[in-house]
Design goal:
Elements lengths: L1 H71 L4 H4 L9 H11 L2 E12 L2 E13 L12 E12 L1 E2 L10 E5 L2 E5 L12 H4 E5 L2
Helix pairs in contact: 1-3
């Protein structure tokens, strides 16, 4: 009887070691995937921030163009439709926000259009790697992600609006008066009241 128990105990030990090895491998593999997922999420956050920064810089350009057009008596209605910006500062803005999130812009900012609204597409790559894991190559692998941000005008411009005359516009339920004959740059509402900037769905 004692010999039989010793025999069972001896045959169970290799099985225990084998199962322990499998569990350890699974744990290390799960950890590797968790590291990769974390890096991917961080890259996506950096891409989102960079795309939004590019779009917000274009929104600032739209506001500058709107103010100048109103002051000069030019056709200013097009600026409210999100037309006319060049995105000259989009690259700088996107790069700065990507860097603040420990990433670099590797694609864009490129002009994009979503549901007829203008925007910017940006791709970033993290400055850090996934790290050493049980999966070969992750020590040199960096995460990439991309995002698109949209500039959506909030104001409804009547088809018969005359840029030479005073116009009252409704922007997301709020009313604003624009009069090129009685205009002060300080009278312009905040940019966020005229244009929404958000990530594309």
């Amino acid at each position: 009887m004692t010999a039989a128990l010793r025999s069972d105990r001896g045959s169970t030990l290799p099985l225990y070691i084998w199962l322990t090895g499998i569990l350890l491998f699974a744990a290390f593999a799960f950890f590797a995937f968790a590291q990769a997922a974390s890096a991917r999420n961080s890259a996506q956050s950096a891409a989102d921030a960079a795309a939004l920064a590019a779009a917000q810089s274009a929104r600032d350009e739209l506001m500058d163009g709107l103010g100048q057009a109103l002051g000069d008596g030019d056709d200013w209605l097009g600026w409210l439709d999100g037309q006319g910006f060049e995105g000259a500062d989009a690259q700088t803005a996107a790069a700065q926000l990507a860097a603040e999130n420990d990433a670099d812009v590797v694609g864009g900012p490129s002009a994009a259009e979503v549901n007829s609204f203008p925007g910017f597409w940006v791709e970033v790559r993290t400055r850090y790697t996934v790290g050493d894991t049980i999966i070969p190559g992750t020590e040199n692998k960096k995460a990439k992600a991309h995002a698109t941000a949209v500039i959506e005008p909030r104001c409804k411009v009547p088809a018969d609006a005359d840029p030479k005359k005073a116009v009252q516009l409704t922007c997301d339920g709020k009313q604003f008066d624009f009069d090129p004959d009685d205009f002060d740059l300080d009278d312009l509402p905040d940019a966020s009241a005229l244009f929404a900037v958000h990530l594309a769905d």
